[in-house]
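Bug #77: duplicate submission created two jobs. Keeping one. Sequence:
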Amino acid sequence: MGGERGFGAVDNGRIADAQSNGSSRPVTRADVTASAPPDARPTISVVVPCFDEALVIMRSLDALYAYLDGLSCRYRFELIVVDDGSTDETAEIADAFARSRAEVRVLRQHANTGVGQALRRGIAESTGEYVVTLDCDLSYSPDHIGRLVDALREDHARISIASPYMRGGRYSGVPWRRKVMSRCANRLLAASSKLDISTVTSLVRAYDGEFIRSLDLSSDGPEVNTEIIYKAQILDARVVEVPAHLDWTGQAERTEHRRVALRVRRTSKVLMFSSFLFRPIAFFVVPGVLLLLIAISTLCALGVTVAREYSDAAGNPDNRLFDAFATAWQLRPQTFIIGGISFVIAVQLISLGVLAGQSKRYFEELFHIETRLLRHVTRLDARIDATPEPAPPALPEPAPGALPEPVDR
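Kept job's structure:
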């Protein structure tokens, strides 16, 4: 086990040195840990949600552990596996893997609650300065972890995303239907957001640990990835991308047993809702303005017809105007209907867009306040936990030969 070799060999050497100093009391590992200088290496927490992954989980965990152990000169690490109510042997295999590796933890969900719930629990249980979320099937290879964390540190970002769709990214073995839908979804979401990114739905990311643990997330499904980006945008957090390779090659066996194709109806609903979150005004104002233009052009044509009939009519102005409208109705009844209905709907949509924009602004302000309060309380709790409790005052020792004071009953 690479992790035990990396840390255990140092401790064994320190124990041997301490025992060679002639101390009569046996030296334990706790004594060495207490006397050792603090480890300045930051910690990476890798969160891996899984559901019915018995076919691949052992191979994936072996590859992840070996890669993370190779980074031990720069980082400490913890590997958190969240079993989301698997019906096969996924949890048992993960438990067996973690039993002899202190850096690996397995969290079990009692039922299949969704990848969003699994991610939220894994992130909440993490302790690292950096948190990386990764698919269990390793469709993105483990070496993306180092590149994502490096991007966080170099660009001083809060989130770095593995993107196969940006310049330098690529994908292979992805079914054409999933590829088309994924690209369309990400283009729509990227256009709706204010961030200069090309991949919004990817689960494979690295986060600043304190930042991601301070977000109040609520999504239970895959839309949690979009929710994180949306709330990061509210907080003006820096989000960067890293060119990535999405590799589905060799997964034909798994796709025969699992429904990996996107559910078109559910995905469309999630996509529309996520786009609405980013820019609710666009969903009301843009259609409203288009309908208003149709209404204006239709009513202008109607006005031209009424003006022409008014000039040709005889009599007093009131009768001429009434006759002009009556003639125009006989000539173009659909103009009245289309123009009137379009105008009413346009006004309603634009009004809803204004209200949605105000509601979004209020939500963003409240979210800012809530997040700042949560961070303040978290830091305050950490300070309280780190402050040692004062020792109780020492009682004066009785003088030799003095009798104890009587106790009143």
